[in-house]
Specification:
Two copies of one chain form a homodimer. Chain A has five helices and 14 strands. Chain A is α/β, with parallel strands linked by helices. Strand 12 of chain A pairs antiparallel with strand 12 of chain B, so a sheet runs across the interface.
Chain lengths: ~200, ~200
């Protein structure tokens, strides 16, 4: 069973009031380019992330706004910034890392909100059924890069508006030398887990 | 079969004449701390690496000098610098990436010499025999980080002066959330390769 890889670079989701703090009253995110998940887009706006040790500039805001503000970075970014975010599902922010976000009109000093996103596959309910993944919460996936391998704990994320795609971060992609649009293979438990 | 992980951050090996170009006549590398492979050490000296797009400062020189100059970086570093080095075994530099090395006394503009090091395991001949790895050139290895998985194409590198250890780069380590000194598990071909 194949799945296309989408590589998530560091990015930020904003709630409305935080967007106003960073970019000012009456600001609207503009679409730079769509991303595969329906309705979502990379915006023309970027911010600076600041950790305990260093900062990262030009970090893109994804739109539209959400009900929570969330910063997603890689472990490599985390070492660079000097912070230690947990591996989390999007939206699960309790106890996640503090981080500062700097925009053109203001700064946000978040007590929590920075995570390393878990590996996951977006899927429609009908695809999940078709691919025999009902009742399966996570799978392992083989990546076919020149430094290939298998990534474990790839969570199945079902919704009625999904575009079927596996999301991994830049560390996963760069470790295995895979990139956006490459194909990966979902390993069925019976073929793989017995060797663990 | 277990093996300890050693994570290789970006670093540089220098031949004698290149060391003199960068650091001046009569310069000697000083040991900052030993590394596990016998006789080798992290030196007190660092250089700047410069690629097509950006530069990386404070990149450590490993000692002692070698018969060739070699820069080892991760794919993440390569994107940052704006270069495209191949995955290679140490010393296999023909056709590898051009890179500029900047030292306190001079610069080197190398036509080749920058690689992404292959994953490998250092092993003594007697250990290779004991662990039933004779005649096996490469293995897959399971990493047990919170974002765990299996890395393929880990080359067996036998020598009489090896310290038994698996070397992976920072991308591999950060993708799987493992670090120096963590234990990994060598997967025997008969248990693993049939699933590929």
């Amino acid at each position: 069973m194949k799945v296309t890889i989408g590589v998530s670079n560091r990015h930020v989701h904003l709630k409305e009031e935080d967007m106003i703090t960073l970019f000012g009253e009456n600001f609207q995110l503009e679409e730079l380019r769509p991303i595969h998940q329906p309705g979502q887009f990379a915006s023309t706006s970027t911010v600076t992330l600041k950790g305990e040790k260093r900062q990262l500039d030009n970090v893109r805001i994804l739109g539209p706004t959400r009900s929570y503000t969330q910063v997603e970075i890689s472990k490599t970014d985390a070492y660079y910034l000097g912070i230690n975010p947990p591996v989390r599902m999007s939206g699960d922010l309790k106890g996640s890392s503090p981080i500062t976000i700097i925009g053109p009109k203001g700064e946000l000093h978040l007590k929590e909100g920075c995570i390393i996103a878990d590996r996951h596959i977006h899927i429609l309910p009908k695809q999940r059924k078709l691919y025999d993944l009902e009742g399966i919460d996570k799978v392992s996936v083989r990546l076919f890069g020149e430094k290939g391998g298998v990534v474990d704990d790839v969570y199945i994320r079902e919704s009625e508006t999904s575009y079927y795609e596996m999301h991994i971060d830049t560390d996963d992609a760069n470790a295995h030398l895979v990139t956006n649009g490459d194909m990966a293979e979902i390993l069925k438990g019976e073929d793989y887990d017995k060797n663990r």
